[in-house]
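User: Just a sanity check before I run the rest of the batch. Below are the structure tokens for the first item. I only need the designed sequence back.
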């Protein structure tokens, strides 16, 4: 008979603290690692799952030993995923947040720069000596002054542009939000932010290990802070991020996380190969499709036929390639017929991939990187790639002030970079740009475009995602045809059904 028993759930740390102080004799056993330990034994122990859980709850030391044996010695690491932790993170720079959010299987919610007025709170990097600090502080204060000039002017501009929005509270907030999110293009990536971060222990071990060896001091500090808190709660599940305990336990040293030296040496050798100069990258928003699964429209037909017909993939692809244009169009009309803007695409849309090289602002990157079902390789921010000026800055005739603050920022960056090349990025602004390589499957592209081409989304990421959709449609005209913002979905779908014959 089916039984579903609640085994545990997130509880606020204050409640747990009260429980610990309540005199209850089980107070030392409060840890989600008992659940991991119980589940780790499921495959071998004949006892019921709930009995295993009850056992590990009363014998936490044994549960910890069992985790060490099963997770680390046997390599059954996935059981650490059953222990989940939540963290409030405050005062972390916008630049350091990027390193944390590289972990794709975790969850994040940040304070929005659309709704929060930035007061000029920023992190001063430890890497800076007195001279760098002076340049940094002077530049940050100019950036904050520019933000304070831009915001009221942009707010007034929006109020005049959309007077009807002022009739509702949400409309009024929206106009203010638009002004704030454009003004913040002048602010440095040293600006502090706050976020909620949740992760299972397996991901925590991975991210802590990576952060602890990061080139930026602030990021290493974050890694240590996460480690110190996590070690109190789930010590047996994060051994790889704890070199000391690892050595004590296993008698050898654990490597220091992800070593990039090899990659740098290998890339340097390729960079040395002489090649003819290429034409400069073109494209309005610098989004280029650099590689993709060939014949994506056919491959999706083949993958879906394989899944739903019992034929092999090879036979399905041969059959797809024999189809005439009207049959192919009919196929897509059939699978799109009942699709709504909130429905996930068929899983087989994951069988085709697109690789985009994108040059984008820090502000757009901050949003794009939040999409976790794709691979992102990123270069450092690069002043040679220029900066993105919000159109509203130009419309309000504030371009000169914006350009002045960008010039001052770049001069400061160049001076600081001489002695602190990596930490110099802190002074660059949300407008500065970097080049990234993104590999996404078509199902994720649909998800990105639904959210980011929608009118609720910020203009910079709207432009980027619209260009991603446009370049994809050039090579996948049928399978990518409905990639659009959710606000336009009904219209785009109707247009497809009418136009494609
Ligand atoms: C208009 C707008 C405003 C926003 N404002 C804010 C804000 O103020 N603050 C903020 O922090 N973020 C904000 N976001 C970002 C948003 O919350 C998402 O983090 C971001 O859009 C990534 O999308 P996603 O999480 O739906 O999916 P992706 O990460 O792109 O993943 C695709 C899909 O995979 C699944 N998935 C991926 N990971 C998980 C997981 N761990 N658990 C369960 N399912 C998963 C989901 O089905 C998801 O839809 C905003 C986004 C938009 C569009």
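Assistant: Here's the designed sequence for the first item:
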């Amino acid at each position: 008979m089916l039984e579903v028993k609640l085994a545990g759930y997130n509880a606020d740390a204050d409640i747990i603290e009260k429980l610990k102080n309540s005199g209850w004799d089980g107070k030392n056993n409060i840890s989600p690692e008992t659940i991991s330990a119980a589940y780790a034994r499921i495959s071998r122990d004949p006892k019921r799952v709930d009995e295993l859980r009850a056992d590990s709850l009363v014998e936490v030391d044994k549960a910890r030993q069992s985790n060490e044996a099963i997770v680390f010695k046997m390599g059954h690491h996935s059981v650490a995923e059953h222990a989940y932790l939540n963290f409030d993170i405050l005062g972390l720079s916008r630049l350091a947040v990027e390193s944390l959010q590289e972990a794709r299987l975790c969850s994040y919610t940040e304070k929005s720069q659309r709704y929060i007025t930035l007061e000029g709170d920023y992190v001063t990097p430890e890497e800076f000596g007195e001279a760098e600090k002076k340049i940094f502080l002077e530049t940050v204060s100019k950036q904050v002054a520019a933000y304070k000039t831009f915001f009221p002017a942009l707010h007034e501009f929006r109020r005049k542009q959309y007077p009807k929005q002022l009739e509702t509270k949400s409309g009024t907030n929206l106009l203010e939000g638009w002004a704030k999110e454009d003004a913040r293009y002048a602010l440095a990536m040293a600006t502090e932010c706050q976020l909620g971060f949740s992760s299972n222990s397996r991901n925590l071990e991975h991210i802590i290990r990576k952060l602890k060896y990061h080139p930026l001091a602030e990021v290493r500090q974050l890694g240590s802070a996460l480690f110190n808190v996590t070690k109190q709660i789930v010590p047996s599940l994060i051994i790889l991020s704890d070199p000391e305990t690892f050595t004590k336990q296993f008698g050898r040293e654990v490597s220091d996380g992800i070593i990039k030296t090899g990659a740098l040496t290998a890339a340097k050798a390729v960079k040395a190969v002489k090649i003819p100069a290429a034409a400069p990258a073109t494209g309005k928003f610098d989004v280029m499709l650099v590689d993709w699964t060939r014949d994506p429209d056919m491959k999706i037909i083949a993958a879906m036929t394989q899944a739903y017909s019992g034929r092999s993939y090879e036979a399905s692809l041969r059959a797809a390639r024999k189809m005439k244009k009207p049959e192919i169009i009919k196929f897509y009309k059939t699978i799109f017929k009942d699709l709504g803007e909130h429905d996930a695409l068929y899983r087989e849309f994951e069988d085709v991939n697109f690789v985009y090289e994108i040059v984008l602002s820090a502000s757009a990157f901050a949003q794009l990187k939040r999409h976790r079902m794709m691979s992102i390789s990123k270069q450092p921010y690069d002043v040679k790639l220029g900066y993105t000026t919000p159109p509203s800055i130009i419309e309000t005739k504030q371009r000169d002030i914006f350009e002045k603050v960008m010039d001052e920022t770049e001069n400061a960056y160049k001076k600081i970079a001489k002695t602190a090349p990596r930490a110099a990025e802190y002074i660059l602004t949300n407008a500065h740009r970097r080049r990234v390589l993104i590999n996404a499957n078509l199902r994720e592209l649909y998800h990105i475009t639904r959210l980011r081409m929608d009118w609720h989304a910020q203009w910079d990421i709207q432009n980027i995602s619209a260009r991603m959709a446009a370049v994809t449609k050039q090579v996948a005209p049928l399978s990518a045809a409905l990639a659009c913002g959710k606000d336009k979905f009904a219209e785009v779908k109707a247009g497809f059904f009418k136009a494609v014959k």
